[in-house]
Design brief:
Elements: H1 3-11, H2 19-43, H3 45-56, H4 60-63, H5 65-84, H6 90-110, H7 114-135, H8 139-142, H9 148-176, H10 179-200, H11 214-217, H12 222-242, H13 245-251, H14 257-284, H15 286-307, H16 311-326, H17 328-339, H18 344-372, H19 377-404
């Protein structure tokens, strides 16, 4: 037995009170915080959109590229890095990627012009794609098999919490100081996580290298294809509108700048609740759960131009929106892992690629609508795509069940 295997097994001691077991769960929590850091960095421009644009002399739609670019890079980096790292120790890979994230946030905080910020966001995309894809399969290697499910949920809670709380936290920091302070804060967090991973993670050599043809080969699975199509549509629907939620709240709802971070925090709290509410339901039936989330998201976005013209109306719809989107990551991840249980790392890489591609497409689509049609149009467009996601889950998912049921 290798030293790496002995270390991992020691960390997975069945004695819940042992120092090894406590260290194992600290390692799991560190991976979760790492995912929180990369997803928060990815989402940070959403709440800082107008501040960045004003400081760097760029339109809201153009600043949206700060979300589009890392999403596109992550979509490519996730499958390619999973293959490229081969048999490299995953602990070293994760530490390197978190260090890259810290450097990217440092460059962002110091950026004198928008092209420099955009270059830093390319670095962010590489880190996102690698960390998220690799971290997804680590839980079972850090804790005993009986605890792997809980550990996996904890790791992926980093995605959900970052998606719903990262933006309001960054917005609040931006309001209290300035937008650069938000990037400095996440830079410090990324450095802390890098050190924690180096100290707490055991050696994690690859179980087996992922072959280049393995990732696209998963498209042959009908269940996985249905989940990916629905995930893509739903994430585009969300980010096509949510990337521009701050200017919408200011111009359409008439919300004062001082209340923006509060409303986004309300959205975030609702999102955390949605994550846990959807988690148990998604474990039983991810398809039906995702259909409910699609419907709620469609209603929330479509009603913003109609009923969200006051602060109270906007707040109520943001609560509904948060409840809906808060459950998306845990539900879609459940769908993916059920679709390819024998190839979890490859399936996670493909899922991360599609998810981040959808983020970038959503931000890009919303920017074009905001700049060339109308700001409220991002809500109509996002709501319509959420309806398409609902139809996809219903029709493609039902057809898949008919073939394999």
């Amino acid at each position: 037995m290798s030293e790496a295997t002995e270390t991992t097994l020691a960390a997975s001691s069945p004695d819940g009170a042992s120092p090894q077991a406590r260290t194992a769960w600290l390692a799991v929590a560190t991976v979760a915080v790492g995912i929180f850091a990369v997803v928060t960095t990815e989402m940070l421009p959403v709440g800082l959109l107008t501040s960045i644009g004003a400081a760097l002399g760029t339109s809201d739609g153009t600043v949206g590229l700060a979300l589009t670019v890392p999403g596109l890079v992550a979509a490519v980096a996730a499958p390619l890095l999973t293959v490229a790292v081969g048999r490299l120790d995953r602990r070293l890979v994760l530490c390197g990627l978190m260090g890259l994230l810290a450097a990217a946030n440092l460059v962002s905080a110091l950026a004198p012009a928008f092209p420099v910020l955009l270059a830093a966001r390319v670095m962010v995309g590489v880190s996102i794609g690698g960390v998220w894809a690799i971290a997804g399969g680590l839980a079972a290697r850090l804790v005993p098999e009986r605890s792997a499910g809980a550990a996996t949920s904890l790791i992926f809670s980093g995605v959900a919490v970052a998606s719903v709380l990262g933006v309001p936290a960054g917005t609040l920091i931006g309001d209290l100081a300035d937008w650069r302070a938000a990037f400095w804060t996440v830079c410090a967090l990324a450095l802390a996580v890098t050190v924690a991973m180096a100290v707490l993670l055991p050696p994690l050599p690859a179980d087996r290298p992922v072959r280049l043809g393995e990732v696209p080969g998963l498209f042959r699975k009908a269940q996985l294809r249905a989940g990916l199509v629905t995930t893509g549509l739903l994430v585009v629907a969300h980010f096509g509108a949510y990337t521009y939620v701050r200017p919408v709240l200011e111009d359409v709802s008439g919300v004062g700048a001082g209340l923006i971070s509060t409303l986004l925090l309300v959205y975030g709290v609702a999102g955390v609740a949605g994550n846990f509410l959807a988690g148990s339901a998604a474990h039983r039936d991810p398809r039906r759960t995702l259909m409910v989330l699609c419907a709620l998201l469609a209603v929330a976005e479509l009603l913003v131009p109609l009923l969200g013209r006051t602060t109270a109306g906007a707040a109520a719809l943001l609560v509904l929106w948060g409840l809906a989107y808060g459950g998306v990551s845990v539900t879609t991840q459940n769908w993916m892992l059920r679709s390819a249980p024998e190839a979890r790392e490859a399936a996670s890489a493909l899922f991360v690629g599609v998810f981040n591609l959808a983020i970038s497409l959503g931000a890009l689509l919303g920017g074009r609508v905001a700049d060339h049609i109308a700001l409220s149009g991002v809500m109509w467009c996002g709501g319509a795509l959420a309806v398409l996601a609902l139809l996809s889950a219903g029709v493609l998912g039902r057809a898949r069940r008919a073939r394999h049921g």
